[in-house]
């Protein structure tokens, strides 16, 4: 296992380096720059700014300079938010997105998994069709439609919740639901589908035939194995949702990190683009590692380290 | 049954979880609280580095320059009590109030202005708007790395007298001193942390009607600055700026009573608001023009007759009434209304009149003259706009008008993401591009000097020797009676060549609570809450 | 007990064939037979065929064109003349939705094809090979997940525009979707295979010397069909709305043409005044999705090897 983790660690460093390099190259070859304005800057001022942010140096020098700071954990200064470092921006914004995201994931799991199990147990009966109907709507309606509609009714029509902004739990309800909608629907469908697979397995039939209590069979043999696809899905979901959604944060004016993934690219704020990309990448890789470890817990037969021979 | 119980339990758990986390109730608000949505997170609150309208609005509440603009854009005495101007209009002497203090109680002196202006011009600080100070002698040279900081012609004669020498007589200089780049700064604070002092309300020392007390979670909160020289005029107890970007969300917040004033409105909702909220809907004037640029180096747009035909063949009134719907005015010239002309009370636009008379028959005649009778053989072109639903709808409407009215085909619409769009415009990689221009100051020249041959903002690649001559002459003339006729002549030349097609003059549609009074909406953008109050 | 041989007599050959051996059916014939027995799935299938037909011929039958404007009739609600009402430029929403169907359906198909083709195979190989190969293949997936999608699409827009100026928007859209839409599928299939390959029937297949490719394609992947179909149906709406999002950077079809996703997202700013502008495109997406999902579920049941009798 230690050997496996060590090997995995090296592959992670390599992957991170590739991500940084490719992103660096891409963002520099797309048209536009961080100090391009609708009102063109006088050349002298543009030169001052470029000198200040070392944009006047050759690209390879900028790249090496960035890597040098990166290994020391310094993500550099933002070009757009003058005076702020990318580390500060992440430190300030991530907790907000993470709090919202964690709530959304919990909602998605706590509703999605039981709904999926229920649908599988009642296959082709009313509860199944109801779950499938609502989960299909949930998949068909993206967060911007769900979010806007929620705001229309809960805030505008009925005045139950504050329309937007951040501060109290009331501000979190609508964005969390908008964020949870699609994962919840997808998890319900995944759970139902793999539950059906598991229910048809011979060992389930055997266990039931042997007279083991049904709930126990269902849990020990059924749900656990049915959760593998859900857990797989959770890896990218956790990384994606915890770092914030641009659309939901924009609709509900949540001061989270999600907006920086999109606006930094529009602004060509190079250091922020790289910073949030690296941050996301690290989270993603960690989440996927946890997913792989979770596999081995659920199904001890799964071997991640590869094997020399069969059996 | 048990399974249903399980689901109900899960739902309950979620409900408990949601209600359990997050902060407590908001602090009960007291006194007169005014909430305004400023529209976005500020990029910086350092006056020397700021660029956008949200930033200047936020700074306006907590700083004050030598002057402060009133509702009619006229500069009023502020930190400066009075000023003298030399005969030739190039030397200004400002007399500062003697009792003015920073928010921490320190006195404000002329040295604070000298320090702030020289800092804003520091090439190493690299502020975007350093060029706003280029009128000051020696400023451009220092900022370009050619001159010395000591040669900048701004000096403190004593603590309360500031002398400035300009490179040329600019009658609008007094207005400029109300601009954030011209604000004084508290030297000790800035020198303690040149980069970071403006990042936190704890380190900002300000001199305006309000001082910031909280900047977090997408809001900025101000309370009155008791050390402000005119503190008696300030009535609001707490001023809250929210930073909501989505226009629909902003509107919902207003309609649910979460803010007293919006910074803009989504166009499609305006007809409904006109009937549902007539007392709250305001259409403020905004000093700007929405126009299309013709790339004068590309066929068929290199032909002035084609450009004119296109400009005559659209129905601007229909566009502002049906598409933008925000009370915009159809633009038949480039310089928008709202700028004074020579005669007292006259308007540059009224004096200059209209240049474009929409006339489809004339447009067809011009097109035939260009060699495309009834649009036959017209090669077509591409309309480029940056991504926005409104730009898209305007382009769709104009495309339809051109095709219907002129019989031409082959026009396409392309949208590009902001950065790519700016690059395309700068490089001339377009045929017809959407653009907008908001004045930097209240004088026609802010709309005219951009069209000089080879100018950084002249994306039409058009040029005219006489036009260039006028613009450079204007640098040396300070008498309005001489300047304004020249600017009229420049606009004549511009509109005769039609490198650009004006479409409409901007407005700022916005919702304001009927209780909110005394605020000042500036025509160059921004709201001043110094004298604002809530009436019961 | 005495048994006399007279009690037994051989069955005629014909009867053996008829009664004891079912006609040999392939996997696919079998699946189709079972699908036909599922009424919900069949209704969905018919609906999908209808939607596709309408998308192809519908715009030809409409009395309006998708770009024809008339300010006098702008923002009208549904009526006899305009079934779904009109938009802000007075264009017939029904006709625009019919046209939008072509774009959105084609994008949905491309996305699910990529998901099914690339994603399943990639994930299958990664999970089946395991060890170092798996580590490398999955890190590649992580890399693709991490490089900002927006950068890819801006790059494509700019680069492909030079190469194919005519249809740059739509083609670069297909490329963009193809680039990332297989990623979730690859991870899901790989997770399933990791678990499945340790099961007894795989061991049995190995023991009788079945080639690896055959084990993967014939034994492992068919056993993942449930999650595969669920993931593939998710790809359709995701692609439809990703397309709307990408139109923000200038990818996708150019105005005045519009897709369902663009119609829906453009309607948001005027939701309070003209809710019908959001309702109809959203309903079109929902109905299509419901049909695809119920067909998908039917297919899942029909294709599941364990359900085979």
In short:
The complex is a heterotrimer of chains A (about 300), B (about 525) and C (about 300). Helix content of chain A is about 75%, strand content about 0%.
What are the key terms here?
heterotrimer; B: alpha+beta; four-stranded mixed sheet; 31% helix; C: 309 residues; mainly alpha; flat
Notes on the protein architecture:
Chain A starts with a helix and ends in a 13-residue tail after the last helix. Chain A is mainly α and 311 residues long. Chain A has helices spanning 2-29, 43-52, 59-71, 86-121, 126-140, 143-157, 169-199, 202-209, 214-226, 228-242, 246-251, 258-267, 270-298. The model of chain A has no long low-confidence stretch (mean pLDDT 88). The longest helix of chain B has 19 residues, at 2-20. Chain B is of the alpha+beta class. In chain C, helix 3 (39-61) packs across helix 4 (93-129) and helix 4 (93-129) packs antiparallel against helix 5. Chain C is flat and about 95 Å long. The two termini of chain C are 38 Å apart. The mean pLDDT of chain C is 82. At the A-B interface, helix 2, helix 4, helix 6 and helix 7 of A face helix 1, helix 7, helix 14 and strand 15 of B.
Question: In whole angstroms, how far apart are the ends of chain B?
Answer: 57 Å
- Biggest interface and which pair forms it? A-B, 66 and 71 residues
Please count the helical segments of chain B: 17
Structural category of chain C: mainly alpha
The count of strands of chain B amounts to 20
Structural class label of chain B: alpha+beta
- Tell me the distance between the termini of chain C: 38 Å
| Basic shape of chain C | flat
| Assembly classification | heterotrimer
Instruction: Give the ordered list of helices and strands of chain C.
Output: HHHHHHHHHHHHH
- Biggest β-sheet of chain C: count, sense, barrel? none
- Radius of gyration of chain B equals 26 Å
